Structures are given as C-alpha cells and as structure tokens.
Amino acid sequence: MKKRYLLFAMLLSCMSCSDDFITKNPPSDLNSDGFYRTEMDMNQAVLSAYGNLRSLYNQQYVRLGEIRSDNTTYSWLSGNPANEKGIDEFSSPLLPENNFLASCWDDSYKTILRCNIVIGRIENIEFKSEALKAQYTAEARFLRALIYFYLNRIFGGYGVNGELLGAIKVDREITQAEAYEMGRNSLQEMYDLIIEDLKYAENNLPESYGSTDIGRVTKGGATALLGKVYMTMAGYPLNKGDEYYKLAIDQFKSVIGNSRYSLVSTYKDLFEVSNKNTSESLFEVQYKKGTQGGATGSPWNNNFAPRFSDKEVVLVGDKGGENSPTQDMSNAYEVGDPRKYVSMRDGWMNAKTGAWENEKYVCKYYDVSSSGSDNDNNWIELRLADIYLLYAEALVRTNGDKQTAIDYVNKIRERARNTPGDPEIAPAADLLRDYTLSDFSTSNDLLLAIEKERRVELAFENHRWFDLVRTGRAKDVMTAEQKFDGYSDFTWSDDALAYPIPMTVMQSNPGKIIQNKGYTQL
Predict the structure, then answer these.
(1) What sequence ranges are listed for the domain SusD-like N-terminal (predicted)?
(2) pLDDT score at 179
(3) Which of 24, 102, 435, 463 has the most CB atoms within 10 Å of its CB?
C-alpha cells in the first residue's frame, strides 16, 4: 500500500466559500504568505473554514454517528446486522483500513488547519476594529472546537497501552517534520483545548449578525456547544459526573434564558428549506444549491432516498440507500406522532410494478424544489430543542428539580402536537400527552423517557450514537437491537465504543501513534 502522509502535514487544498456566506472564491493558494495581509483576506480565510464543514457533514459524520446507532443502517445490506452496524471485514467502518475513517480524519484536520491559519496569522494584521479581529479569531476557535469535539467522540477511547486517549492536538500551523513526531494526546488534554476555545468564542462572538452574515456562529452557539461538551465529559468515558452536569446546566440556562431563541411553532416548519436559520437554530452548516458543479449544495435528497427508487421518490443519481431507518426506529414513535411523518417513511409505491416497497427512508432533509444531489437544505447542528432535553436530563442526573425537567420535555411534546402529521393516520386521543411526575416511579424511568424523546425529536440529526455512548447505554441498546433483528447471540464489546485510528495515519507514524484497544498496534 502506498504510504500516505498525515493529513495535518499536508498543504491545504483550495475550496469555495461565499459572498453571501456561501459562494465567494478564495485565492488559489490559501497558504500563500503573501495572501494574509488585510481584514478581507482573513474574512475569506474564516469562510474557507466554514466551507470545509460540508465535506464532513455531507457523509462522514452521518456514517460514523447516526448509522452507527440503532436509528439507521445501509439499506442494501438488509438482513445482515453485522454488516449493517459495521462489524465485519466487508463493510466495517470499524476496521482501521476503512475509507470512511480515513476520510473523516483527513477532512477534519483540513478544517482544523484552516482554523489554525486564521488563529495564528491574524495577530500580524492591522484591523480597524479590534472587536472584528477578535470575532474572526472566535469563529475559527469555535469551528476548531466543534471538529475536535467530533474527533474525540469518534476516535477517543482506551488505547492498547491502557491510557484514555483522544485525537492528535494540532493547535497551530506545523511543519511536516513536526507532524512525524506527533502522537495522540490524552482525552483530557483534548477536551481542555475544546473548552478553552469555546470560552474564548463565547466571550468574543456577537449575539447576532446583519443579513449578509446570517449563518456565522453566534455567542449563543458557543454557549450551547460548551454545554454539550460538559455534558459529554460528565459521562463515558471521562465520567466527570455531577460537577460537569452542573457546569452544563449553567450553560443551558444561559441559552434558554436568551430571548433571541424560541421553538419554531411546528416541527415541520423547522425543516422547511425556506426556513433556514430560524429562532430555534443555534448553529447550522450552510448549503446553497445552484453553484458551479453543485459544490455548495446538500446531497441528502439522493443519499437518503431508498436504494433503486429512481424517480419514484427523488432523482437518485447515486442509488441512495444510505441512512435507512431501522424497524426499531420506526417503532420508537408513539402512534400518530407527527414527527415521524416529517422525518421518515416506512416505504414507497413502485409505480412500475404497482407494489409497495417496504424500504424505509429519511425524508427530513427533502428539498421539494430540487430532486438531485444539489439541494438547498442546511444541516442543523445545534438547536434549542436539543438544549431543552439536555437541560432536563442534567437536572435529573444531579437530583435537581424534576418538575422543571418534565416541563421542558413537555414543551417539546406540545410543539410536536401542533405539527401536521400523516393525513392517513388519525391522531390518537391522548397523542403525546404531557408527562406528570406521577408517571415515573424512579429517576431512571424519567431518564429513559428523556432518552426516548431525544431519539424521536432529534432523529437523523446525528445525536443518537453519541448519546448512547456518553450515557453508558450503547452496549445494552445495540445488543437489544441486534436481537430484535433476529441475532440473539450477538454481543456488543467495549472496543466498539470508539473507532480505530485510521490505518493510513498509523502507517504514517508507526510507533508514534497508539491504536485504540481491540485493534492492532503498528
């Protein structure tokens, strides 16, 4: 196999960004020392970092997050849950040589590199406004923290040496020679960097922007993400416990108390293409169809359509079949829950044969104005409903006010009740009724109700797998799901809670980079 360099030692490749925050073309070489001279240069460099998010959200995070969970699978592997969940040698994202892993790692560090260029070089540039200079730095640090948050949830785990390890810490521009001397940092060190970046972002980002800059991250986005980071650190594998749940509560209360944010009136409205960056949104990855080659459009119409459905659902250029909902996911919705109709379908009518095809697919990201892989949907990474439910969970885990926790869950259920559902299914009389304290005998019962509410409210938004890992529920839930599919002897091991470091990375620095437990150390 041809040896590849570590991604973070490679030169940046050129990429498109935008004058309305999407389509502006940066100079041909963003690494050029002669480029970083003005405020405008740095603005383009920041937008380039935003633009690179699309390479990750188009496929990689869905593959290694949502599809990893009991929510979805690959529809063309139906009938073999070992394949569906990536366990065996033929399709497994678990194997170090799998291309999904390498692509995720490479694209993540490309984005981090772009952020590091901004952070490292902006100090040498004279700005008319120091606040704007700090804002650009804060945006780059938020994006770097976001990517490291994903990297450490995907690859962070116990190494073959028994230590709890995270990704490789690259917090500045480095030379190729330096890259070959680098190994993984402790998971705690990586989270320390994430927290430091997010605190800076929280203190230096504006509350909002003018119309030409809608989509850039705000103070509220940084506050929310920091809360999620604390929530994750409280659980597996760092297991920081109550202290960090309480830190998360403080962050969530700050977001919830901000009058700029409110739930969109119906669940359906939240995902309408015309309703980008709503009052519920804390951060969205921006997409725009119609640019040259479809470079900035979103691909989920095609990717998530049923495999071989051709034009029966959407124009499926790449045959679809990715991120197909499981039967267990379909069953998770209460009868008549309108969120199911907005989010997924249980099958489709084949006009050629007249037969009903029992093949489930995600429709939450459907762009009715487009039918191919160049669509206008944004990816909502952070939104208020997510924060409400995390806040409720943190209150219960710290033996806080359970009634307040239930109230915030009920706000989510009330909004769902106000949503138009499947016209062929009459709503149940007690559809999504409000919970009361008397419904739960124990705190664990309430936590399971919150978990279920998160599953259906945030379905196909790439939260489920990370929720299961941090709460210590992944093994039990995934084993049960495989048994539900008819594989009663299936067991889920601890090693499956973290992905292996990609083989290309291990080969680049043999002996320097420690592999995760359960995989071969080079």
Answers:
(1) 20-231
(2) 87
(3) 463
Residue with tokens 């009330």: 414
Q: What is the pLDDT of residues 130-145, one digit of tens each?
A: 999 999 999 999 999 9
Give the E-state strand segments of 433-512 in sequence order: none
> The pTM is what?
0.92
Which residues fall within 8 angstroms of residue 227, CB to CB, at 6 or more apart? 247, 248, 249, 250, 251, 252, 255, 387, 390
- Taken in order 160, 161, 163, 168, the sign of the CA dihedral is negative
Q: Identify the DSSP state of 186.
A: B
DSSP code, position 320: -
Pairing mode of beta strands 348-349, 356-357 = antiparallel
Which residues neighbour 502 within 8 Å (Cβ) at sequence distance 6 or greater?
96, 97, 98, 101, 102, 105
In 3D space, the residue among 97, 102, 99, 68 whose CA is nearest the CA of residue 84 turns out to be 68
Q: Rounded mean pLDDT of the chain? A: 88
| Residue range 461-517, pLDDT digits in tens | 999 999 999 999 999 999 888 888 777 777 788 888 999 999 999 998 888 999 999
User: Any alpha helices (H) in 122-167, and if so which ranges?
Assistant: 130-155
Instruction: Give the other-Cβ count within 10 Å of 163's Cβ.
Output: 12
Q: Is the pLDDT of residue 77 over 70?
A: no
Residue 461 burial (CB < 10 Å; 0-12/13-18/19+)? buried
- Pick the more confident residue, 311 or 299: 299
CB within 8 A of 306, min separation 6: which ones? 75, 312, 313, 316, 320, 321, 324, 347, 348, 357, 359, 360, 361
Under 8 Å CB-to-CB from 473, ≥6 apart: which residues? Answer: 451, 467
Q: Which whole number is the average pLDDT over 337-353?
A: 93
